[in-house]
Design goal:
eight-stranded antiparallel sheet; two-stranded antiparallel ribbon; 1 helix
């Protein structure tokens, strides 16, 4: 955070040069630093289902229901890091809320199945030809599904005069009930009800309002959640015994096999003219590769 932010008690709309001489250390501008007084807690229910390899089938599934709260996050987890949003450097408890990594529901699955055909298997096991054509094929799958990551609605341009941090808005309605403005210009009452959580309008920006110049808003950090994530990877292949110790493995791998789009977070600035539209994805489209390996 900026440990030289202008304190909230010193903010004023009458300043000609807002905050220029009201920093705790007025001879300096911004001073980035860590206050080392944040807190975090994580609670979860975790379930694991495992089937060891029998009859050619092996499965593993994991489910986690959790809640992760903290005062601030690092930014060390790739594209899921989220922002390091804060409003006041001097009120760390005011920033306490869902972590950027607060994924409430997470399900992962992996499995391998060797089809029951060919030599030593249950079906089509009577000839070398049957074994060559049908035997030893394996299907493998991995998948992950989780609910969305949290984000903070903010003012696109801060007017706190604090010379640091973001300005949070005030909550005046229900952000999860998307309401469109009517033709009278009333954006908060009497608007046309629209669908909730669409890519064109993920949350109701009209549920928020500017707290005013030189004021802090009352919205909590990471109070809204973005879209979830779904991914299924498949692999299908076979190993041929060519001659004695010679082996040929062929395989087809498909990442995001269902070509399912997982989307990023919406536009979170509540004071622009655009709806809370989502324009990015968190996973690429289907990708297929063919693989061959000859061992000797």
């Amino acid at each position: 955070m900026d440990i030289n932010q202008v304190p909230q008690s010193e903010l004023s709309v009458t300043d000609i040069t807002p905050g220029s001489n009201k920093r705790p250390y007025p001879n300096f501008t911004g001073l980035g630093g860590s206050t080392n007084n944040g807190i975090s807690n994580y609670n979860s229910f975790q379930a694991v289902f495992q089937k060891r390899l029998t009859h050619g089938l092996e499965l593993n599934a994991n489910y986690t229901f959790s809640k992760f709260l903290d005062s601030q996050d690092s930014s060390g987890w790739g594209s899921s890091a989220g922002s390091q949003t804060y409003q006041s450097s001097f009120c760390v408890p005011c920033n306490y809320g869902p972590s950027n990594f607060d994924l409430r529901h997470v399900f992962t699955f992996s499995g391998i199945y060797t089809l029951p055909f060919g030599r030593g298997a249950q079906f089509l096991n009577k000839s070398v030809l049957e074994d060559v054509v049908f035997g030893g094929w394996r299907l493998a799958a991995t998948s992950r599904e989780n609910t969305g990551s949290p984000f903070t609605p903010v003012m696109s341009s801060s007017q706190t005069y604090a010379q640091a941090g973001s300005q949070f808005p005030n909550l005046i309605g229900n952000p999860r009930s998307v309401v469109a403005p009517n033709n009278t210009g009333d954006t908060h009452n009497g608007g046309a009800q629209a669908s909730v959580h669409t890519l064109a309008n993920w949350f109701n920006k009209f549920a928020y309002a500017s707290p005013g110049i030189a004021m802090f808003g009352n919205v909590h950090r990471n109070s809204l959640y973005g879209p979830g994530y779904t991914n299924l990877n498949l692999s299908f292949g076979k190993t041929f015994s060519v001659y004695q110790k010679y082996r040929l493995e062929i395989r087809a791998d498909a990442q995001n096999a269902l070509n399912h789009a997982s989307f990023g977070g919406p536009d979170s600035a509540i004071d622009d003219t655009h709806p809370a539209v989502i324009t990015s994805v968190t996973d690429g489209g289907r990708h297929i590769q063919l693989y061959a390996r000859f061992s000797f």
